[in-house]
């Protein structure tokens, strides 16, 4: 089907190309573009027909040629980064000498994301941040994606070398499905994961023209996924950016690492674009990254039923955070709680990270007002991912096909995104299942996997009670050594064999994750400016269909199809008053998912310009998010824990919502029972005495979440030197989607008299239970508020210094703290930057310091229990040197100069320094 689609597009382009009108008289317009102040040629300047698609760029000598069928007079527009744009009226043929003035309004960027139309960043109705092509090139971070954390109000959480999650304004997650990431308008999320995996499947840095970020809800214009914000990446148009570009980047990480030697990483990229005819252009990109990922080695004992003073390596029931298999625990009669011996993550997870990205785009300009685009993207990556467990996305592949028809007032876009998990697997499940392959009975015979756990605990019991010859009794260490006889040691041939086998076994008994899910998306927009004159009016809409297929490994879809349809439409009206000093904008959007009621999400804003470059803004925004497919239908079991989606049909017959205890009450009950036993009570009496601490859960099925935000801001450019950007927001959340932990015993949780059933309570202590992480909603309203201040000052001689600070606060109001979502956001974070890209004609540098406050992290990985993230700061820097003769730039830089080991999410790896060097060749470099 994909081959046929490609063939159809090629035939269509060929037909349109062949059917070009031949009776129209063509005009060749030529000229040269120079710097007005220095007389130097301007390379890569865009020369476009005003209001049309047709155009070209200047070559290495600053010359251009433009073929058109337009009649005199007409207007051309000339623009280049760092220069003021210029319009020229053409009334007769002839050679042109065009002078561009270096730009003085150095921060007056044009943005699109805030209103879905072009506007000045100074007059944006909501907070917005932007990285231009020059910002991308000079970032001190190892790549532009890491450099996003230096923008105001942006949180970047690293869970691996190439897997980083962007978030704004709280409720952060390592699987952030509340934040929309678009590349040329295409949603960059794998359908089965339902969130973008950093830039693994995004744009090559060589092909990236700009990045825009909206902190806070953008649902009114972009739909349910943009609940927490939007990241919009725009790539380079092959008509404008032609020629060959290449980049070679190499570096080192794991320096002074306890668990690995210093290791090299490499990042190679190639881009080529060509205009084959004034109407037809194409580009192709290929990039490849390879490196050794960071190791997750947090071995904190997180067993909930062990008193804090008894936790640690000597705890017989130890459950270490990044050790898997030790979650399997039992309360042995006369001995106490004992866990199985687990395997460290570093022996289970594939840390050899790699990422391949290939892109081909064909652009055809039917006429001066219409363009057709066909694009195919292919990505294949191996990377560490984190959710309820740690996963290895091994050779995970993503395919995207996009067809777009656009004009100056409209666009119609259709795309399909499909994934193939290949050899992806769950590290926690892998460790647990390896533990089922080697256990021996008391006669020394290896038992079958279904008997392995019972047999291991029987060996432990017999050894501890002194019933095994030559094994000292009442000794936990000796009993464990005896129970572990025959255990496959990491690195052994037997361990490697079972690891390799189980990685590819899907479902029960294996660790493999299988998904070949996809989604289809169609959207369009029309601007009515040529029809409606009293105001700027635009409207648009979209439809999406998810087609999920995981063969029972993530969803319960082995014997049935899971499809989800959703869609929405919006209208936006904008009006300028008082000689364009006041701009009023109103937007409204309606969204509907097949499993939930539809919702409206209005947005209203006011922008007031009190003087030149002094702009106040105020907005009321609403957000709306349908539960994603994972929230609705996931059914993923890792040992004794099942992550369960929240639509009614997904839990039918499982008796979870009807018969379970709240996770917090189970923890309190377990601690109380253990304390009673330590004080000399029998286990039976301790259970009976403390069972009333248990609370029957009352969990609702999941439904859409909503928020309302009031925001005010001020942005100004003073004396063309100082940029000030200040904002404050207050948000109220209803029905926030979250996960909660419940524990289901085998017996009924309540007896006939509605008191806690003692049998169910006993099963908790005996570990005859199953834990569920359920998707539901916060039952109470909560609110957040925050403020950001950004200052950027232009010093003499092109030096630039900037800083920003963000404050975020979470208010529980009257809500139950056990039933609200994880805020996962530092109260304060800030950045300082200093640099100069033109210290001399060849040399430049850029420095960045990032700091954030300590906070508690809640996530499914630790069953929604808190883990402390300490305050930390990092320092990045780079120096660059232009090599004009080679049309190249050499950059030497470092991420995290002091090699501070940083945890950014509880259970994630500690991130250290990366020292790197890059060589970038560009035909347009000068």
From TrEMBL:
Molecular function per GO: siderophore uptake transmembrane transporter activity
Source organism: Dyadobacter koreensis
PANTHER family: HEMOGLOBIN AND HEMOGLOBIN-HAPTOGLOBIN-BINDING PROTEIN 1-RELATED, TONB-DEPENDENT OUTER MEMBRANE RECEPTOR
Keywords noted in UniProt: Cell outer membrane, Membrane, Receptor, Signal, TonB box, Transmembrane, Transmembrane beta strand, Transport
Membrane topology classification: Multi-pass membrane protein
Family per record: Belongs to the TonB-dependent receptor family.
Domain TonB-dependent receptor plug: 122-229
Residues of the signal peptide: none
Descriptive protein name: Outer membrane receptor proteins, mostly Fe transport
